[in-house]
Amino acid sequence: MGLTTPSASAPPAAASPGTGPGAPPTPDDPASLKVVPARHYARWVAAVAVIVLVAQFAHGLATNPVWEWGVFRDYVLSETIVHAVWVTLQLTAYATVLGFLLGTVLAFMRLSRSPVLQTVAWTYIWIFRSIPMIVQLVFWFNLSALYERLGFGIPFGPVFWSVDSNSIIGTMGAAIIGLTLHQAAYAAEIVRGGVIAVDHGQLEAAAALGIPRLRQIRRIVLPQAMRAILPTAGNEIIGLLKGTSVVYVMSIGELFYQVQVIYGRNGRVIPLLLVATAWYVVLTSLLSVAQYYVERRYARGANRTPPPTPLQRARRFVRTLRAAAAQRNQPVTPLKPLGDSR
C-alpha cells in the first residue's frame, strides 16, 4: 500500500472580492472618492459687484455732461497749465534735493556720539514735524515782518554787510525754504532708518581694515542703506509733489493755483479740477516708474538676477506669441509607413 505524496504547490487561496486588478474600487478606497473643487460663491459675487460699479463709473464718465470733456481738452495742454506744471516740478525738485541733503546731515547728527549734535537734530525734527506745512510757508512768507534786514558780521557784534530780506527771499524762495525745511525733518528719519538697517559688523570690519570714516559711510553704509531708504523716500517725494499745492496760499503760479484762477473766471470747476487731477496722476506715475528702476539698480547686490522689468516681460510675451504662431504655420510632414524604405 503506497503513501500519497502531497503536491509540491498548494492550490492558490481564493481571492477576496474587489481586490483584483480589474475589480471596481470599494467605498473605503480613496480612489473611489470624487474630488469636488471648492466653490467660492462670495468671491464671485464680490467680483461681479465690483465689475458693475466700475462699469457704472465708466458709463458716467462717458455720458455725464457735467464732466465737460471739451473744456478738459481745451485746457489740459494749454500754455498756462503747462507752465504751472513746470513750476510744480521746480518746487518738487528743489525741495527734494535740498531736503534730503539736509535730512542726511540731520540723520548722522542723530547717530553721532556728541550729545549736542544729537539734541540739536532731535529738536529740529521734533519742531518741524509738529508744525503744519501751510503754517511754515506763511511764516517764511512773512519773514520780513520779523527780520527787516539780513546781514553778515560778528555774532552779537557789529554787522559788516546787510540787505533787505524781501530782496533776497522772494515768494518763490520762501516757498522753497519752507518746503525744504519741512521735508528735511522727514528725510532725516528715513535716512536714519536705512542706516540703522545696515549690519554694524560691516563698519567694524571696515574700521579694522583702516578705511576712513567718511569713506565707510559713502562706499559701504549708504549703498546698502539705499535698499531700505528708497521705498519710503519714493513715497515721500510723491507726497511732496502733491503737497506743493499748499503754496497756493502764497499766490505762486503752480498747478493747483492756476486751476483755481481759471475756474474762478469761467466757472468750469469740474473739468478744471479734472485737468489738475490728470496732471498729478501723470507726474506721480512717472515718479513711480523712476522709483522702480532706481530700486532695481540698488537691489543688484542682493539679487544676482534681478526680476525682469515690465518692458522685458512684454517683449518676452511677444516673442512667445510669435514662436507659437510660427510653430502653427509650419507644414506638417506626413509620417512614413513602417517598412517603407523609400
Automatic annotation (TrEMBL):
The keyword Transmembrane helix is assigned to this record: yes
Compositionally biased tracts (Low complexity): 1-18
Pfam families assigned: BPD_transp_1
Residue intervals passing through the bilayer: 41-61, 81-109, 121-147, 167-188, 237-257, 269-294
Keywords from the UniProt entry: Amino-acid transport, Cell membrane, Membrane, Transmembrane, Transmembrane helix, Transport
Region feature Disordered, mapped onto this chain: 1-30
InterPro entries, per the entry: AA_ABC_transptr_permease_3TM (IPR010065), ArtM/GltK/GlnP/TcyL/YhdX-like (IPR043429), MetI-like (IPR000515), MetI-like_sf (IPR035906)
Subcellular location: Cell membrane
Organism domain of life: Bacteria
CDD domains in alphabetical order: TM_PBP2
Name under which the protein is recorded: Amino acid ABC transporter permease
